[in-house]
Amino acid sequence: MSSTRPSRPAHGGKPFTDYEGLAVLLEKARRGDRRALGQVAVRLTPMLWQVARAQGLDSERSADAVQSAWLSLLGSIADIRTPVALTAWLVTVTKRTAWRMRDDHSAETPTAVSLDNVRDPEPQPEEHAVFTDRRRRLWAAVAQLPRRCQDLLRFVAFVHRLDYAEVSAALGMPRGSIGPVRGRCLARLRTVLLADEKGSWR
Amino acid sequence: MTADGELDDLDWEILREIRGLCEALDPVPDDLVERVRFAIDLADIDTEIEVLRATEMPMAAGARGEHSRVITFDSPTLTIMVKIESNADGSLRVDGWLSPVGGHAVEARTASGPITTSSSADGRFSLARVPAGMVQFVVRPSGQTGIVSTPTMKL
């Protein structure tokens, strides 16, 4: 990454998780400010949703798992001092809750996100068609990766600049390995994308 | 990626696109953040909260033309079963059973404020008129400091 590049690139109008702002909100929330805690929930809920869904839960149970993590946090927030620790704590509790829910319903087939869910939009301008083509090719390339890589990239896309030592533990990976693993996963993905001769990623 | 392991522009674009794809393919339910904010706005601060899991998921409202549904929630220390029926005025009637039985404080948190009652010695409770909308059941088991809560539901 070049030094001129903004450290938090905007995408679709939404910034990646802003840990400095989160630190201020967390400090207020720890002192009992429920509005601040609500703001923290607005920031981190989309990432926790991805975590719950990646455990193979359906939509309704994923929503319950995410809510459970936030409710459980109320009794533990006094001990959580940094945004990274907060993120790791919430990810861990969401995953643990999701696993218990999955065990409750182990006979059911996990629901996975699939390309079949991509609906073709109305007739679109050429530019939009190219955009859609890139996304389809990207998703097809992601689908060729090992499951571990898919889950990791999906997670990393929602939070980055994390302290990998703490978060790798939350993700159930050996300490310190998430960085190299992310690198390998991205490298594999790039190889697939760039090998796609008709693709617009070249 | 560059040689020193930093991400380059293409890596960032790929990650942004993956995020965009996830958001498009598998969007966070519209009301989830709202339900989370409602749930964590509990008055109890620094209280140990045991969260109940729905073990029998509610049927979709009005499924098969029925006006009543039963939801069972479980936690390591408490089980609650609630039967929810629609009143003629659009509000909800809630009949519940708690186990272990006993007189526990029961609260239905709603958008228009909490409705409180207690379970009887045999673990039963009922709330005649609960406004439809967001509802969270909170139980304060007698003789304990912690509380037990369901997630917030749209009923």
From TrEMBL, chain A:
Domain RNA polymerase sigma-70 region: 44-103
Keyword Transcription: yes
GO MF term (any one): sigma factor activity
Domain of life: Bacteria
Region (Disordered): 103-127
Basic and acidic residues composition-biased segments: 117-127
InterPro entries in the cross-refs: RNA_pol_sigma-70-like, RNA_pol_sigma-70_dom, RNA_pol_sigma70_r2, RNA_pol_sigma_r2, RNA_pol_sigma_r3/r4-like, WH-like_DNA-bd_sf
Gene3D superfamilies assigned to the protein according to its UniProt record, in alphabetical order: 1.10.1740.10, Winged helix-like DNA-binding domain superfamily/Winged helix DNA-binding domain (1.10.10.10)
Keywords for the protein's UniProt record, in alphabetical order: DNA-binding, Sigma factor, Transcription, Transcription regulation
GO biological process, one term: DNA-templated transcription initiation
NCBIfam families documented for this protein: sigma70-ECF
Assigned protein family: Belongs to the sigma-70 factor family. ECF subfamily.
Full protein name: RNA polymerase sigma factor, sigma-70 family
UniProtKB/TrEMBL annotation, chain B:
Protein name: Carboxypeptidase regulatory-like domain-containing protein
Superkingdom field: Bacteria
